Amino acid sequence: METLSQLIDTVDENPDSILVMRQQTEQRLPSHQHDKAQLLLVYGGIAYLQTQERDLYIPSNHYIWIPGNYPHNLMFNTQDLYIINIYFPQQKAGGFYDELGIYPVSKLLSEMLSFSEKWQGDYAEGSWEFEFLSTLKNVLSKENLKKFSIQLPTTDDQRLNAITNSIRTRLNESLSLEDTAKRAGMSVRSLTRLFQAKLHITYIQYLKMLRIIKAMELINDTDLNMTEIAYEVGYSNIAAFSNNFHQLTNMRPTEFKQR
Predict the structure, then answer these.
(1) Calpha distance 115→58 (Å, rounded)
(2) Pairing relation of β-strands 73-76 and 18-21?
(3) How far is the C-alpha of 242 from the C-alpha of 239, rounded, in Å?
(4) 225 CB burial (10 A radius; 0-12, 13-18, 19+)
């Protein structure tokens, strides 16, 4: 808890400054929040951000915008991940800046980040670094990029969590609604209602997201080809795998691998 307190004190010590931090510290902390808004950029792997309502997945070359005073906790499971955090003073900007969202790093944003790649620490209002970083922030809402949409809802329902944990270990199986209900000792109707009541999502939607998340991890962490990955996460049809991947990530699997 001392580390958590130190981080929050550091972030909010100068309320009017913009703070750039490149240390990967937040993944070791419990859920927390700070007054400043946070731009968290991910390179080289997949990061996982937990909130009170959902788990979010941030692939390489994407960023997440976290409004001020929004409880969250960052995690990742790869040593190749590189993270940049930029904390901005609270402002009543509205719209884009009031909502949690994940977006791809555009060419323009990438060039601005490259220009400031050695910056670290606090930058006070009036400095040219502050003005540059403020412009970087203002660019975000102007790009009109489509949100990355893989957001798994969470629940404290123990019975449902046991079911979803079991599904995670068997993604290469067919996992029909009927089979999963039978394994859980429930009727199809009861399991359908449980997903809707506790997660506000259908069983099929949840399973689809789990499979694409696992595929992203395999693309990033293994040398399997796309056909092998598709089979590994439960698809017998490579076209269906590619279409579902694109539907949830706005990218084809091959494009994701190139990034």
Answers:
(1) 23
(2) unpaired
(3) 5
(4) exposed
Residues 10, 12, 14, CA angle at the centre, nearest 5°?
90
Taking every pair of Cα atoms in the chain, the longest distance, rounded to a whole number of angstroms, is 64
Q: What is the pLDDT tens value at each position of the chain, 259 positions in all?
A: 567 677 777 888 899 999 999 865 566 678 889 999 999 998 877 888 888 888 888 888 899 999 999 999 888 766 667 889 999 998 776 789 999 999 999 999 999 999 998 999 999 999 999 999 999 999 999 998 888 878 888 888 999 999 999 999 999 999 999 999 999 999 999 999 999 999 999 999 999 999 999 999 899 888 999 999 999 999 999 999 999 999 888 889 998 888 7
As given in the structure block, the two tokens for residue 191 are 């399991």
Q: Could you give the CA distance from residue 39 to residue 20 in angstroms, rounded to a whole number?
A: 10
CB 102 within 8 A of CB 63: yes
